[in-house]
Amino acid sequence: MRAKVLDVRREQDGQALREAARLLREGRLVVFPTETVYGLGANALDGEAVLKVFEAKGRPADNPLIVHVADPSGAERVAFVPELGRKLMERFWPGPLTLVMPARDVVPSTVTAGLSTVAVRMPAQPIALELIRLAGVPVAAPSANLSGRPSPTDAAAVEEDLGDRVEMILDGGPTHFGVESTVLDITGERAVLLRPGGIGLESLEEFLGYRPVLPGAGEAATHRSPGTRYRHYAPKIPLFLREDESVWDKVEPWAAGQRAYVGIRPPLASCAFIRLFPDVESYARGLFSALREMEKSGARVIVADWPDAARVGFALRDRLRRASGGSSIPE
Ligand code: TXA
Ligand code: MG
User: Fold this and answer.
1) Ligand 1 centroid, distance to 64 Cα (angstroms)
2) What is the C-alpha to C-alpha distance for residues 73 and 51, in angstroms, rounded to an integer?
3) What is the architecture of the domain spanning 4-223?
4) Do residues 127 and 17 touch, judged by C-beta distance below 8 A?
5) Of 31, 183, 229, which is best to mutate to test ligand 1, by the most ligand atoms within 8 angstroms of its C-beta?
6) Which fold has domain 239-324?
7) Of the N and C termini of the chain, which has fewer Cβ atoms inside 10 Å?
8) pLDDT, tens digit, 9 for 90 and up, residues 250-278
9) 226 in contact with ligand 1, CB cutoff 6 A
């Protein structure tokens, strides 16, 4: 099977979206753009369809999926929404905020990985919203990459990973945020930040009146947020963080022709492949595609700038930290 790639940006008659919606209703897989990254969608009420998502990605079965809805009432269908949830939706939806809430029985255990909670979000992407509306069902969707690879921020990256594993890819152009949604658990007394993302910590803190709890490392934390157990966003070549300028000594063993650099500040050593961004938002937007490009450029090592933690910088730091896991000097 080779995926049908349909550019839906200038579609006038809605034909492609209707076909995609029909596929979803029939229990098949459709990749669609969101404002964060591309999602690999299946009917969230169809346990068999959801299983195919895990197969296509090679995703561990104990890592639950996010359910995408077209409006807050869609969330009520799959979750018991607490008062705080309603208020958060009013303020941040549509947008990159995923809420973890107690799940209703209609949600198959394949979606929740057997947990009693379900993660729900309403994306701020007209194509995604229209697709969910037309499908008439909530859509379970992880990022549309092979498990462990950087999330796809354009249709070409999706094709690279899943081109022969899904039926249809809706091309909506490059995504706006480039990092995934913020995941907030609101089942307890205090909101817990399970994954930093497109909605910054400052905005949440201002709204909640307190800083959401950041789960520390260790057993308890990984239990609450299964996704954090796995190595994510990994490029195929080692990646070093420019937390301070000693990074340039660390990449000394590689020739300039083998070095790549991505970030906001210019590099302090010569690098054959350089991708510079004017601010933290565009760095976040472009990071994942830069990582994929760099692998293909023939580079053997990547140095990544360490951004300020403000706004989306907090999520960017998280992704960079994960991407750097396992980096080591060549022997
Ligand atoms: O921006 C996004 O969130 C993208 C787009 C496609 O919407 N989706 C995405 O999905 O990043 P995924 O599957 O790559 O990440 C989902 C995260 C994982 O860390 C998972 O563990 C967590 O959400 N999650 C899902 N359901 C959960 C639950 N019931 N309790 C705790 N964490 C949950
Ligand atoms: Mg993912």
Assistant:
1) 7
2) 25
3) Alpha-Beta Complex (3.90)
4) yes
5) 183
6) Rossmann fold (3.40.50)
7) C
8) 999 999 999 999 999 999 999 999 999 99
9) yes
